[in-house]
């Protein structure tokens, strides 16, 4: 208990600059944790939704019926959004052009745009986590350097220096570094984990786009032959 009170007193007695550094770091830590929980939920749902849609897509359902199901939903994300944009553009191009190359080129463009949007949605918040992970230790180090500097300046103003005089200032300064690491470490771990998950999801999206494009290409090619 005395240790906790001692740390609390150190925080309250710290200089304005060190206190400001600590508040910034605490704010960054709280924000990053909120983003971590939010991003974890989104990526988990994206993985689950992709698997469910792939199972539905490869179940042998008619593509027009599947498109109607997806379009009936208020919002389509992930693989559903790629399928919707691709099939919509394919149907539109197929009505206006009988050249399979032109049809597939337009379909590919639509799905590439959709893929970019989905990846951008999945990567949201990751730049902030990367920033927190990279700069938090330096912000904490700044608070530490400032606190130690003030301690030595105060030490130089007295004739007889003791460890008891300089220890509180150094201790409060080191707390800033500790808070910086506390903010940075979870952010770095989460960023690395989420980046890997985004790459896996993006890879599954790209594979789906290519497989779906091949199916559409066979359809339009058989139509040309007929």
Automatic annotation (TrEMBL):
Residues 77-204 form the MotA/TolQ/ExbB proton channel domain. InterPro entries: ExbB/TolQ_transport (IPR050790), MotA_ExbB_proton_chnl (IPR002898), Tol-Pal_TolQ (IPR014163). The keyword Lyase does not apply. The chain crosses the membrane at residues 16-37, 126-149, 169-191. It is a multi-pass membrane protein. It is found in: Cell inner membrane; Cell membrane. Keywords: Cell cycle, Cell division, Cell inner membrane, Cell membrane, Membrane, Transmembrane, Transmembrane helix. Pfam families: MotA_ExbB. Belongs to the ExbB/TolQ family. Part of the Tol-Pal system, which plays a role in outer membrane invagination during cell division and is important for maintaining outer membrane integrity. NCBIfam families: tolQ (TIGR02796). The Tol-Pal system is composed of five core proteins: the inner membrane proteins TolA, TolQ and TolR, the periplasmic protein TolB and the outer membrane protein Pal. They form a network linking the inner and outer membranes and the peptidoglycan layer. This is Tol-Pal system protein TolQ. It comes from Alishewanella maricola. The gene is tolQ.
